[in-house]
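Mods, move this if it's the wrong board.
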Amino acid sequence: MRGSIPTPGPDTAHFGGNTACVEVRADGQLIILDAGTGIRPLGLALVKEFKRHPVTAAILLTHTHWDHIQGFPFFVPAYNSRNHIRILGFEGTKEGLVKTLSSQMESPYFPIALQSLPGYIQMDQLKDMEFNLGPIRVRAMFMNHPGVCVGYRLDTSAGSVVFIPDNEAHVRLKTTPLPDSDPAQDPESLQYAQKQDDKLIEFVRDADVLIMDAQYDAEEYPGHVGWGHTCVDDTVEIAIRAGVKSLFLFHHDPGHDDAHVTKMQEHARKIARRRAPHMKVAAAREGAECVLPAKNG
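Not the wrong board. Structure tokens:
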């Protein structure tokens, strides 16, 4: 739920302080979106649930910034030889996905090397923007975030789930003047920015569930232009224009306590009530579940 760095403590206990990790179960597949510190309690829950049965899971990484991979060394299922863990992601460094993930487990940073994990760990560096995990169709799209970063859309038999934890809206980036800068913008540049945001809206179109970056409020955003994260107003706007059914605000700022996140949630709901009253809006919360009813036919 949290962006940048874990924030444990009483002020973040309601929404949670662990960094990005979401579990999706559909069509016989167990898919984990990102491997932030939230993957540690998920791993413990999986071990408890599966008991002596093997765990087979696919981890889809949006990118390899630390808050999206730092939990993997503590993912307990990776320490059992019966388990099959497949990690998929796009190349974010010159060394590639394997080197990036293994480097955080090298001495002196961690006592156990990635190559020493007893679980069957398979790494796939993705090149195609569309592929399948079992019967689930997965589509990826590059996001407006420093480095190589994607969002994923999972189309399942029960519905579609879109995961975009890190992204900055192009239009607001272009229309928010930096201090001491000329607020005037080139019309062609603004037109290009709008086209990029329109592409994202089409990627999200009619999603049953959208989990999306909403790190800043409108007052904070001007101080973070170009950091690669979205103003909550833009997140709601994208969801409304795309016809999303349920929106979960994600990547809560580490400086936001539960009261601040609640305030942003209510602001987002107010916008939705006025323009898209049937769309559900909530701030993502650790341990929360969203169940899509099976579709007939």
